């Protein structure tokens, strides 16, 4: 799997297809975050969420994590264009979480926007375990992704969209899975309980704010 080829077109494509809905979904809970000291943005891509976070949070340690060199460079340029000082708050890590460990530990907040949907079940479980293990006891997890839910018409519409997107990413990014999995149970098993949920684009996307209880199952 490699997002380098599609990276330069990702934002334009997203806006043509979904207008501002993906960004609304990513940033749904950005203004209700508790004060945090250390944040990991995993599979952050071209840095659209990162820039919003820099503008809305004064957190001094933000770790950008992605396996695509092109995505990482796009995110770096976006941050540099915004401000000369902002990059000092961000560490950029080129890291393939399917084979490497998280670059650091003790995160208060982890963010996975449209990232967990790229994995099959074993890899999804492995990545969630790695991310969860890098978090502090009461960490917050912001999750945004596509979903198949709702009534029959809504589900058929979502299935059609998801099928098309997976086919597209199979060709442009060699995506290995063709099935959208719901990570809710795996997140719950790691103690991350659902606190808030919002849906976008007639239920095609959902944003969740989860927080870990002190005693995970
Ligand atoms: C669908 S894109 C989403 C990007 C961004 N979070 C967003 O909301 O637009 C998935 C991102 O995950 C990254 N990615 C895929 N597999 C990865 C892995 N094993 N480890 C780290 N990043 C990965 C890709 O390079 C890509 O930037």
TrEMBL record:
The keyword 4Fe-4S does not apply. Gene3D superfamilies: Vaccinia Virus protein VP39. SUPFAM superfamilies: S-adenosyl-L-methionine-dependent methyltransferases (SSF53335). InterPro entries: Methyltransf_25, SAM-dependent_MTases_sf. Keywords: Methyltransferase, Transferase. One of its GO terms (molecular function) is methyltransferase activity. Residues 42-136 form the Methyltransferase domain. GO terms for biological process: methylation. This is tRNA (Cmo5U34)-methyltransferase. The gene is cmoA.
